[in-house]
Design a protein that fits this description.
This protein is an all-alpha fold. The chain contains nine helices and no strands. It has helices spanning about 5-10, 15-35, 40-55, 55-60, 65-70, 75-100, 115-135, 140-160, 170-180. The longest helix is centred in the middle third of the chain and has 27 residues, at about 75-100. The radius of gyration is 16 Å and the shape is globular.
Length: about 180
């Protein structure tokens, strides 16, 4: 089970991941609305809550500002996104600073790989190219996010990093309807 469904939530105990998934999508929408108005508070708070609710969903959420920067490159968006990430980091500092300081204690067993990761990456790349060709601006950030998260997952699986990249699968599946 990949988390975010009934069996994984109650059978395996992925309650934190199930809580973080709605926060993740609220964060995505909040950042999309706030990037033009340059308001930092709500998206930074939602990113901080996502990170604190579940580390892996928070890891994935950090790719969202990267997707927005790639979608809207420039000094103004770079400064806004840097300030946003800094504020989110400060809001999570009570947890993230000790976690980063003790990262060497992290022990993860490699128990699986993302199913169909390379195929999903190829399909997302084709859809991204078609969207770019058709000038579909509304799908730009979700597609860039999917490309980034799938590329990192496929590369991590191929390099045998002891990380559970398959836990990001649920976010990929849930992001697909937004793209389409």
């Amino acid at each position: 089970d990949y988390g975010g469904n009934i069996n994984a939530t109650f059978g395996v105990g992925f309650v934190a991941q199930a809580l973080s998934i709605p926060l993740f999508f609220f964060y995505f929408g909040s950042l999309k609305r706030s990037i033009d108005s340059q308001k930092l508070a709500l998206p930074s708070l939602l990113l901080a809550l996502t990170i604190l609710a579940h580390t892996w969903t928070g890891f994935a959420a950090v790719f969202i500002p990267i997707a927005f920067f790639l979608s809207r490159p420039g000094k103004k968006s770079a400064l806004y996104l840097a300030g946003h990430l800094l504020l989110a980091f400060l809001l999570t500092a009570f947890w993230s600073v000790p976690m980063l300081a003790k990262i060497s204690y992290l022990a993860v067993s490699h128990i699986g790989k993302m199913a169909w990761g390379l195929e999903l990456l190829a399909a997302t790349l084709v859809v991204a190219l078609l969207a770019h060709w058709r000038n579909e601006a509304r799908a730009r950030e979700p597609l860039l996010f999917l490309l980034a998260i799938l590329a990192v997952s496929v590369a991590g699986d191929r390099l045998d990093f002891p990380v559970h990249f398959y836990r990001l699968t649920m976010l990929v599946y849930l992001m697909a309807p937004i793209v389409l």
